[in-house]
Amino acid sequence: MNEYIHEFVSLLDKPGNGNSKVQAEIRQHVLADILSKVGVLVVVLDLDGNIVYFNQKSELVSGYSLEEIQGECFCKLLLKSE
């Protein structure tokens, strides 16, 4: 994990080197990889409260995969039927 964080920080420290669009895409992939592997729940919502991103820990705890829950209202997690 530390190597990902180091790479991400290195990319942030080098603005203007190379193609900025490519660097932005690399940063996005590195950050997504970090968020997918952290041991805490990470849920990203849009302005309407719909789930945009759901990491692996969130999948494990909720029982939903990202594909199942993406675009659904966050309240669906709170009101999970028995």
TrEMBL record:
PROSITE patterns: PAS. GO terms for biological process: regulation of DNA-templated transcription. Gene3D superfamilies: PAS domain (3.30.450.20). Pfam families: PAS (PF00989). It comes from the Bacteria. InterPro entries: PAS (IPR000014), PAS-like_dom_sf (IPR035965), PAS_fold (IPR013767). Residues 27-82 form the PAS domain. This is PAS domain protein. It comes from Candidatus Magnetobacterium bavaricum.
